[in-house]
Amino acid sequence: MKKDTDRLGLLLHDATRAVRKRFESRTSHLGLSTAQWRLLAQLSREPRATQARLADLLDIEPISVSRLIDRMEQGGWVRREPDPCDRRARLVAPTEKTLAAYAGIQTIADEVYDEALEGIPAERRGELAAMLRTIVINLHDAEAEDRHPCIKASR
Questions:
Q1: Residue 30 DSSP SS3
Q2: Distance between alpha carbon 102 and the CA centroid of its chain, in Å?
C-alpha cells in the first residue's frame, strides 16, 4: 500500500521548480541566473557574508561561488569588502543597485507565491509554511549531528 509521503521528494522538487521558473520568467528583465538569485536571496537574509559561508549556504563549491561573485560584482550587484574580524577574509555585501531592486523583486516574489497558493485557504497557508519549516529544521539538525556527533550527545 502506498503512503501519502511516497512521492514527497518529487512533489517538493516539482513545486520548487515551478515557483522558481515562474519567478525567473517574471524577473528575466534583470538578467540574473538562478544561482545569482539564490546568492542575492542569501544576502537578503545575511547582508554580509564570507564567500565560504555563501558556498555553504548555497551548497556549491567555493571556487564556483568565487566565479559567481566575480560576475555579480562586475554587474554591480555585490561588492567585496574587508572582514573587520579576519584580515584574510573578504565579506560579500549587496550594493545600492541590489537594495534598490529588492523591493520590486519582493513584490514579484509575493505575487508568484500568491499565484502558487491560489485555492489554499489563508489559515492552511500558514500551516504549510510551518510544516515546511519543520522539515528544514529536522533535516538540518540531523545533518549537523552527522557532521558533529557531539551535538547529539549534548541534546
A1: helix
A2: 14
pLDDT digits (tens, 9 = 90+) for 39-86: 988 998 888 999 999 999 999 998 999 999 999 999 999 999 998 888
Q: Could you give the residue ranges of the DSSP H alpha helices within the chain?
A: 8-27, 34-45, 51-58, 62-74, 96-116, 122-147, 149-154
Q: Is the dihedral of CA 9, 15, 16, 18 positive or negative?
A: positive
3-class SS of residue 6: coil
Domain 29-116 has CATH 1.10.10.10: yes
Reported pTM: 0.70
Confirm if 43 and 33 have CB atoms less than 8 A apart: no
Burial of 43 (C-beta count, 10 Å sphere; 0-12/13-18/19+): buried
* Domains of the chain, residue spans: 29-116, 121-155
Copy the grid coordinates of residue 54.
555563501
